[in-house]
UniProtKB/TrEMBL annotation:
<comment type="similarity">
    <text>Belongs to the 'GDSL' lipolytic enzyme family.</text>
</comment>
<dbReference type="InterPro" id="IPR044552">
    <property type="entry name" value="GLIP1-5/GLL25"/>
</dbReference>
<dbReference type="Pfam" id="PF00657">
    <property type="entry name" value="Lipase_GDSL"/>
</dbReference>
<protein>
    <recommendedName>
        <fullName>GDSL esterase/lipase</fullName>
    </recommendedName>
</protein>
<dbReference type="InterPro" id="IPR036514">
    <property type="entry name" value="SGNH_hydro_sf"/>
</dbReference>
<keyword id="KW-0732">Signal</keyword>
<dbReference type="InterPro" id="IPR001087">
    <property type="entry name" value="GDSL"/>
</dbReference>
Length: 263
C-alpha cells in the first residue's frame, strides 16, 4: 500500500507515465514497516518510537515514530512514490490492541480514501492503471496471535487454535480480495516469524528457566504461514491477474537464532 499516508497523493503520484515507477502500498502491523502512523491515532497511547534510543545513530536527526535508527524497508521501496498505512501493534482483527493501533479494516478504509483522491486528481482510467501496476506489501498477523490470542484467555476459551487460525486467515483473505476488486494485482507478503522466540514471548515460557522459545506461539505462527501459503496458491488461480511473492521470514529468523555465527 504506499509511503506515508500523511504525505499523500499529489506530491508523489502525478508524474509522467513513462517515468513513473510502480508505486508501493504497504499494509502492516509490525514495527518493521511502520513509518510513524501511530502518531496520528486520536487519543491513542504515547508512541515509544518517538523517544530514544530510536533514531540516535541513523538517517533522521530525531525520533519520528519509527522503531529503528533510520529509514525502514518501505521507506526505501516507496521513496519515489507510495503510501504506507502500516501501524505497529495492529491486527487483522479489529479487537487486537483496539484503540492502540490502526487495524487492517481501518487501513483499508484509508486506502479507499487514497483511491478516491487519485481518481479526483488523475481520472478513473489512469487511477485503475496505476493501482494495477502498484505493488501491495502486506505484513500483518503477529499481534493477533501474541496479545490477541496468547495474551487473551477469553479468546482462547472461545476459539481453539485451529479455529482461530482459520478465522485470522479468513479475514486476511477477505482483505486481499477487497484490494483485488479495487484493482490490486501484484502482492508481496512477509510471513510470520517464530513468535515464540521473540523476547516478550520467551518470558511466557514458564516451563523453562533458561528463557527458551515458547513453542506454542511458534506453532501458531507456522500454522498461520502454512494456511496463508495454501490460500495464496488457491486464489492465484481464482483471482484474475493475481501475482504474488511470499517470503519465508520464519525460516530467515529461525536460522539466525539457531546459527548466529553464520551471520
Amino acid at each position: 500500500m504506499r509511503l506515508c499516508y500523511s504525505q499523500l497523493v499529489s506530491r508523489h503520484l502525478v508524474v509522467p507515465r513513462r517515468s513513473r515507477p510502480a508505486p508501493l502500498f504497504s499494509s502492516s502491523a509490525t514495527p518493521f514497516v511502520d513509518s510513524g502512523n501511530n502518531n496520528y491515532i486520536d487519543n491513542g497511547p504515547e508512541n515509544p518510537g518517538n523517544y530514544k534510543p530510536f533514531a540516535q545513530n541513523g538517517f533522521f536527526k530525531e525520533p519520528t515514530g519509527r522503531f529503528s535508527d533510520g529509514r525502514i524497508i518501505v521507506d526505501y521501496i516507496a521513496h519515489v512514490n507510495g503510501v504506507n498505512f502500516a501501524s505497529g501493534g495492529a491486527g487483522i482483527l479489529s479487537t487486537t490492541n483496539q484503540g492502540q493501533a490502526i487495524d487492517l479494516k481501518t487501513q483499508l478504509k484509508h486506502f479507499e480514501e487514497v483511491q478516491n483522491s487519485l481518481t479526483k486528481n488523475l481520472g478513473d482510467a489512469e487511477t485503475k492503471e496505476l493501482l494495477s501496476e502498484a505493488v501491495y506489501f502486506i505484513s500483518i498477523g503477529s499481534n493477533d496471535y501474541m496479545g490477541g490470542y496468547l495474551g487473551n484467555p477469553r479468546m482462547q476459551e472461545q476459539h481453539p487454535p485451529e479455529e482461530y487460525v482459520g478465522m485470522i486467515i479468513g479475514r486476511l483473505t477477505q482483505a486481499i480480495q477487497e484490494l483485488h476488486e479495487k484493482g490490486g494485482r501484484k502482492f508481496g507478503f512477509l510471513s510470520l516469524p517464530p513468535l515464540g522466540c521473540l523476547p516478550a514471548l520467551r518470558a511466557l515460557n514458564t516451563k523453562s528457566n533458561e528463557g527458551s522459545c515458547f513453542e506454542e506461539a511458534s506453532t501458531l505462527a507456522l500454522a498461520h504461514n502454512n494456511a496463508l501459503k495454501a490460500v495464496l496458491t488457491r486464489i492465484e488461480h481464482l483471482f484474475m491477474g493475481f501475482k504474488y511473492s511470499n517470503s519465508y521470514f520464519y525460516n530467515w529468523l529461525d536460522d539466525r537464532i539457531n546459527n548466529p555465527t553464520k551471520y
